[in-house]
Amino acid sequence: WEEAIWKMSGFPAKRFGLKDRGQLKEGLAADIVVFDPETLADKSTWSDPLQPAVGVEHVLVNGQRVIADGAVTNQLPGRVLRRS
Predict the structure, then answer these.
(1) What does the domain layout of the chain look like in residue ranges?
(2) I need a labelling partner for 58 at 20 to 30 A (CA). Which of 37, 65, 71, 83 fits?
(3) Is 43 exposed, middle or buried (0-12, 13-18, 19+ CB in 10 A)?
């Protein structure tokens, strides 16, 4: 899982020059996904592409829960990131 997490966080941040993102470190911005590796699965298909993944328990964006206990909270605290 360590390599997969790097490819979804640290690598894109480095690739796109987002110097304040990509790792959990004091002073950096961090959006956090809490998942269960035993149940994590993609349920979307070509005919039904909007099915959410299962096994994602919590997602925090700018410190606010956007997914709590597997359910969407309708909070929209994020913003589009642009290379600086």
Answers:
(1) 25-77
(2) 83
(3) exposed
